[in-house]
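Researcher: We plan to redesign the surface later, but first we want a full-length starting point. Tokens attached.
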């Protein structure tokens, strides 16, 4: 399964639209899954920046703090980058990605737990089918940051 995240960068945070690739559904189109929020781009600095655009492996993970969530593998210069619920990037994220149902400002959204459940369900189904799960992050506004 391939997930595709289209980002828009703002000074206050990064907003995204997460899609499942049409390849998974024998369709030419991607299917909208949820919105995402992240920290603003700050040169990939730990705890204060979203991660660079690129392709990352996604694995289900469990911890006491976040319960069921997802972890991204292969993030250059970073570790423990997660998909976990949050509604305010600046207050609740340290470089991770939060799925949200609705956006209500740069780096802000609502109903994150609902969006997370939807995402987890698709990822666990793909895992059961023994499919690799990849996340491709792309920019929507090219005048801002690009991968180095």
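Model: Full-length starting sequence:
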């Amino acid at each position: 399964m391939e997930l595709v995240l289209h980002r828009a960068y703002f000074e206050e945070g990064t907003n995204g639209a997460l899609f499942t690739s049409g390849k998974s559904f024998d369709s030419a189109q991607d299917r909208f899954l949820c919105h995402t929020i992240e920290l603003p781009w700050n040169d990939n600095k730990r705890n204060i920046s979203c991660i660079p655009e690129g392709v990352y492996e996604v694995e289900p993970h469990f911890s006491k703090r976040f319960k069921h969530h997802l972890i991204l593998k292969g993030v250059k210069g970073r570790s423990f980058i997660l998909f976990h619920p949050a509604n305010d990037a600046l207050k609740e994220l340290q470089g991770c990605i939060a799925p949200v149902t609705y956006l209500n400002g740069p780096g802000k959204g609502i109903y994150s737990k609902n969006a997370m459940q939807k995402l987890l369900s698709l990822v666990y189904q793909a895992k059961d089918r023994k499919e690799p799960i990849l996340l491709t992050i792309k920019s929507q506004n090219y005048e801002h940051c690009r991968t180095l």
